[in-house]
Protein: Carboxypeptidase
Organism: Fraxinus pennsylvanica
Amino acid sequence: MGAIIMNWIPLPALVLLLLFNNGTSQSIVKTLPGYSGTLPIKLETGYIGVGENDETQLFYYFVESANNPKTDPLLLWITGGPGCSGLSSLVYEIGPLSFDVTNFDGSLPSIILNPHSWTKVANIIFIDWPAGTGFSYSNTSKGYYSSDTKSAKDNYTFLRKWLLNHPMFIKNRLYVAGESYGGKLVPMVAMEILLGNEAGLHPRMSLQGYIIGNGLTDPIIDYNERIPYAHRMALIPDEYFELAKVSCDGKYDNPDPNNMQCLLALQPIKECLNQINEAQILEPKCKYIAPKPGDFGWDQTFLEDDSVDHLVLPASEQDRMWCRTKTYATCYVWANDPSVQEALYIRKGTIGYWTRCNQSLSYEENQESVLHHHKIFSKKGYNVLIYNGDHDMLAPYMGPLKWIRSLNMTVDDDWRPWHVNGQIAGYTLKYKKNAFNLTFVTVKGAGHTAPEYKPKECLAMLHRWLSIRPL
C-alpha cells in the first residue's frame, strides 16, 4: 500500500478516505518482464472497489507525467468496447510503453519506449472497465452485470476513491478522456463529477473539461454518416449514393424493413464496402482486425474474436499481406504470462485467460445518446477536445461535425489546417459559447484509434490544446 500523507487531506476527505479505503490497493511497479533494467517511468497498478460492499474490483494502471506530475493535468482514460482493457491504449496508443512488434516471434515480447507518449505532458489513469474487462473482476455474479449508467457511476466512484488515495493530485487540472465506445462514457462520467461538485461531495474535483477520440455520441447521427462518408471518400459512386439518399430519405442506419426501395438501394453499397477495413479504410481488412464484433452497431464489420489463436497468421499469409492484427498478439502473450501478472500485482485466481477485449460481457447499452450531456456542458465553462482520425469509417468525422453544430455555438476559429514539422497534420475548427470552448480536430491519415496511427501528430495536438495554444 502506498504511503498516504495525511496532513495534505482536509478533514472531510480524511473521513471519506477511512470509510472508502476497503477494497483498494496500490503498488509501484519498478520492473517488468520484457524490459531490461528499472523502468524509466513511474508506473502504479492497483484495484479500487466499487458497487455494493466493493464487490466490483476495478483494476488500473497509473503513469505519472514525465514532465511535472505536481502541476501537469490528470487524465482518466476510458478505453472503448465496452470491455476493452486500458492496457490496449497504454501499449498501442498513448502510453509510454510499447512492444517490439518487429522482432516478435511468439515468445514473451520485448518492451520498448514510446517517444510520443501522452504521459510526456499529463498524468494518466488507464482503467479496466467494467468488471470482466482486463484484470477487473467481481466477487459476485451480480457484479458482472453492467450498463452505461452503472459504468458511469462506478467510474466516478473509482475516481473519487483514487483521488482520496492520491491527495497530491486532487488540485491538478482534471480531464475525462476516452475513445470509441468510451466516447459515450466520457461526458457521462464528467456529468457525475459536475453533479458531485455541485452537491459539495469530497473531494472536490478540478474538472476542466473532456477529450473524445473517434467516439460514439448519438447512433442516429454517427452511424448514419457512414454512407455519406463512404461516398465522400470515393468508395461508392454518385449513382448509388443518390439513389439511397432519395429512397431512404437520408436514413441509412436501421432502415424501415417495409421500405423495399431503400433496402434494394443499400444492397450494392454494402457490397462495395464489404471488403473495406472500416477502422482504417486504407489498410487491409483482416478477419480479426477489430476490437469488438458489432462495435458501433454494424454487424458485418467484424467476424470473430481476436483471440491469440487467430492473431498469429501462417508465415505464407504474413508474407502475402501485412495485417495490423498481428500487433495485438503481443499483448495476449505478455499479459497472460505469470511473471507479468506477478510484476503487475494481479490478485491470483481473480481472472482466467486475459483478453484485450472481452466479448462476453453482460452489458446493457441503456444510454442511447449522450448529446444532451454535451448540450448541458456547452452552457458551462469547460474546455472540450473532439478529435477524429479522418480515415475511420466506423466513427467518421462527419458525425461529430453534425452533432457539434446542433449545440448552436459560434465559430471562433474557422476550418483550417494544423501542422506538425511543417506538414499538414489535419484540420481544425474551434467553437465558443460564453466560457465554453470546443475544439474539433481531424488527424490526417489516422484510423479509428488515432494515436495508434499518428502518434507524433496526436501528441502535438494534445500538448498544444492542454497548453491553451492554437493548434
Q: What stands out?
A: The longest helix spans residues 148-165.
